[in-house]
Every structure is written in C-alpha cells, then in structure tokens.
Amino acid sequence: MANHVVTPFRDPDHDHGLCVDEALKLAEHNCAVKGVRLTRIRARVLELIWRRHEPVKAYDLLDELRSERRSAAPPTIYRALDFLLGEGLIHRIESLNAYVGCGDPGHPHLGQFLICQQCNAVAEMSDPDVTSLLQKKAEHLGFSVNWQTIEINGLCPECRESPQVSG
Ligand SMILES: [Zn+2]
Ligand SMILES: [Zn+2]
Ligand SMILES: [Zn+2]
C-alpha cells in the first residue's frame, strides 16, 4: 500500500534550515500563482511555525513577534494565521490548539496527523484510502462528511528508540 506522506518524521540531525527555506519558497510560489500577497508578517509567522516540526501555539507566536516588533497584537497573529490556514500553508492541530506547517501546500488535501506524545514532533499523511474508508463507514451511519482531520497520538521513530519512563 502506498504511503501518502506529506511531511515525514525527520532525523534530529537533518538540516532544518533547508526545510524552512523550502517551505518559504513553496509559500511564495503558491501565493504568486494564486495572486495573493505573502506579506512580511505572514511570511514571518509561517517561518516561526516552521521553526520546528512541532505544533506551535498562537500565544507563543505572539511572544516571539512581540520581541521583534512591539506593535504585534493578537489580531495581527490571528489574521496571519487565518490567511496561512486559508491558503493551506499551515494546518491546525485541534487537540493541541496549535499549528504546523504543511509540506505540500500546492495540493489541497485532508490530513492525518501523527503526533508524538514525547517530543511533540508531527508527521502528516494524506492517504485517500483512509479518507474514503472513513467516509464510507460514516455514510453507513447516514452521516455526510464535510471535512475530516485525523489526529493520532503515539511515539515517533526517534522517541521509540529512547522512550522516557513516565509517571
Ligand atoms: Zn526540518
Ligand atoms: Zn498538509
Ligand atoms: Zn518523538
């Protein structure tokens, strides 16, 4: 079965600067194609979200931006987040009330997110088999699906190798 990976788990030693560069380049390209403006603040918020492969909360973004420009206020952040969400450049992880960058913003998709409970790393899949299976099962119950986002908690490859004893 094909693995429809949008954003994989990355090796901790990978050159993350390349991920950020790639994400910003993709964002610029996609905005240019759609004729929408990736303003400096929008690009900066996207860059901050891409700082790690982990979900980022809005107030952490606000803290970060305030240290750069004192005029940054919650509406500034929320407007930028709305834009980035609307353009598919980021996704919202509902269970954590936080945001992650999307590795493939050019192609609209429904995501399945794998969330590491130990280090917070997130990988994104978009597997049409999963999507249509859930849709069929829901239809069986007379339910019509508008949208689906799946959030799955567990351990990433890195943390599986060195699990922390909890408790
Ligand atoms: Zn990276
Ligand atoms: Zn995505
Ligand atoms: Zn992990």
Describe the structure.
The chain contains 6 helices and 6 strands. The protein starts with a strand and ends in a 6-residue tail after the last helix. The chain has a single domain (8-161), classed as Arc Repressor Mutant, subunit A. β2 (90-93) and β3 form a beta hairpin. α2 (40-49) packs across α4 and α3 packs across α4 (74-86). The longest helix has 19 residues, at 16-34. The strands form 2 sheets. The chain has a 4-stranded mixed sheet with strand order 1-5-4-6, with no helix packed on it. It is globular, with a radius of gyration of 17 Å. The protein is of the alpha+beta class. The chain has helices spanning 16-34, 40-49, 58-68, 74-86, 128-140, 157-161, and strands at 5-7, 90-93, 98-101, 112-116, 122-125, 150-154. The mean pLDDT is 93. One zinc ion (ZN) is lined by residues 116, 118-119, 121, 155-156, 158-159.
